[in-house]
Amino acid sequence: ATLATPALRTRNLTKRFGGFTAVNGVTLDIAPGSRQALIGPNGAGKTTLINLLTGILRPTEGRISLDDDDITHLPADKRVHRGLVRTFQINTLFPRLTPLQAASLAISEREALGKVWWRTLRSCSWVADEAHALLKQFNLAQYAHVDTAELPYGKQRLLEIVLALAAQPRILLLDEPAAGVPEDESGELFEVIAGLPREMTVLFIEHDMDLVFRFAQRISVLVAGAVLVEGTPAEIAADPQVRAAYLGN
Ligand code: ADP
């Protein structure tokens, strides 16, 4: 792969649910290392598109490639092993686990250690060491032994990102990473995202336009399942179609 090869590419990606087209002929090229935002009104198809990219949903038409390999038919778990990783909401997944246990599980998943109990994992010291180091790196060490459900909400959302990082992603997909987080903390969360390794590619859905324009290098605007326009924040802000259809001025 040369520098010019997009990390992630879709061609004419389409998803129909019965007669309803949720994603309609989406063609995207996401450059390696880019911080790219996916914006659009509710129901535009953003989450469906992310689900197509991760392999949770199968497209009705079109193709997806990772580096230069066609992954359209690759199962979701194999995509994770190829470095295409999304976050999951931990407060629905692991309310009774501590961050240390959850991070240990995420690391063991990556290493294909199987579905082992955390009690067993605790005796596997390098996993626990790596989990500790990861939590420390993101200033979550003080919460290592607290049930995740007890963490302040902003820290829960940060932990979701940290758990995704345990999989060592090359491409990270974030569906509203700061949703529900108080405004004074959502910027902090995005500082963390901005501070991820430069070579990591990040595609995020975000509704808060201040955050989008502060942190995205490129923006794709999805309307009614289709890409209305794609460009730099300056291009998007100046685009009359976007202003009319989406920003509402
Ligand atoms: P967004 O994330 O931009 O708000 P979604 O991708 O969640 O949009 O949804 C796009 C459209 O597809 C919505 O109209 C939604 O109702 C519809 N949709 C999503 N998932 C399904 C499904 N499994 N079956 C039928 N319709 C769906």
From TrEMBL:
A single GO molecular function term of this UniProt record: ATP binding
Q: Which SMART domains match?
A: AAA
Record's InterPro entries? AAA+_ATPase, ABC_AA/LPS_Transport, ABC_transporter-like_ATP-bd, BCA_ABC_TP_C, P-loop_NTPase
Membrane-spanning residues where?
none
Alphabetic keyword roster: ATP-binding, Cell membrane, Membrane, Nucleotide-binding, Transport
UniProt domain ABC transporter: residue ranges: 8-249
Domain of life here? Bacteria
* Protein's UniProt name: ABC transporter ATP-binding protein
The species is: Pigmentiphaga daeguensis
